[in-house]
Design a protein that fits this description.
FLAD1_M; 2 domains; 10 helices; alpha+beta; five-stranded antiparallel sheet; six-stranded mixed sheet; 13 strands; Alpha-Beta Plaits; Molybdenum Cofactor Biosythetic Enzyme, Chain A
Length: 278
């Protein structure tokens, strides 16, 4: 029976390789899992293909470096009810919820409304944000649409960072960032470590392998079961001549990562490895 299961598994991995997919095994340990995040990208322009989302990649990269594991990313339209539902859902599942987009002076900038609705809150003009907006955009007219940037949930707290002029709006475990990368990137970079740093950092190493996945899949499956607190990933590469697959081995400490690498190398055919990237 075991032999039959192994054969089936090999066939599934061969099919996965042919389709250009990847394999991933187990999860990082419980300590790291406590620091999880969900990212909500907001904007009709993303869903319609008018704009490319680069914010989620930027946020994921910085959260990973802070020891935060991103569990889910979703893209939603500029709709108050949908935004509120997604925020409530994410807020109950992840330690941090980060939104990007839907913040601005126009009619379709409704993220603050969705955030307020998610937590049964009301919107108000925050006096400090009003002053910031007026100075930032040189607004003299009290009816200017730009003042909408100061119309935020009453329960909001303001998160300021070095060298950023506009604070991040925070309600409960939700942190709101603008959709324009020009503003999001410096703001998120300035605040990430202070707001989101976890107690541990991820240690990831890469192995470059010069054979298809099915030739080492059983070894990778075995070692993933032996090291339940280590994460293993296998990613076929089509555009390289000297290797076919990158295998990543990751945990929240270097010792476990190195021991898992050694065990995998012992189990897999010895001639398949091209290089190890530390």
């Amino acid at each position: 029976m075991l032999r039959k299961c192994n054969l089936i598994f090999q066939k599934l991995n061969l099919l996965n390789f042919i389709k250009g997919g990847s394999m991933s095994f187990t999860s990082i340990g419980s300590v790291a899992d406590e620091h999880t995040a969900g990212i909500i990208i907001i904007g009709d322009e993303i869903l319609s293909g008018q704009q490319r989302d680069t914010n989620s990649h930027f946020i994921c990269t910085h959260l990973y470096n802070c020891g935060v594991k991103v569990k889910k990313i979703s893209v939603v339209c500029d709709d108050v009810e949908i935004i509120a539902d997604e925020i409530r859902n994410y807020s109950s599942k992840y330690k941090y919820v980060i939104t990007a987009g839907g913040v601005g002076p126009t009619h379709d900038d409704v993220t603050y409304e969705g955030l307020a609705k998610a937590f049964d809150d009301n919107l108000h003009y925050h006096p400090l944000i009003l002053d910031i907006v007026k100075k930032l955009f040189n607004i003299q007219d009290e009816t200017s649409p730009g003042l909408k940037l100061a119309y935020i949930p009453e329960k909001s707290s303001l998160k300021f960072g070095k060298q950023i002029q506009f604070p991040c709006i925070n309600v409960e475990n939700v942190y709101v960032f603008p959709g324009s990368p020009r503003y999001l990137e410096p703001s998120f970079q300035a605040l990430c470590k202070d707001l989101f740093s976890g107690p541990t950092k991820f240690i990831k190493k890469k192995l470059y392998i010069n054979v298809p996945e099915e030739l080492f899949a059983n070894a990778l499956t075995t070692v993933s079961k032996e090291f339940p607190h280590v994460k293993f990933g296998s990613y076929p590469v089509a555009d390289q001549s000297d290797y076919q697959v990158i295998v990543t081995i990751e945990s929240d400490n270097e010792h476990d990562t190195d021991i898992a690498i050694k065990r995998f190398r012992d189990l897999a055919p010895s001639n398949i490895f091209k290089n190890i990237e530390i």
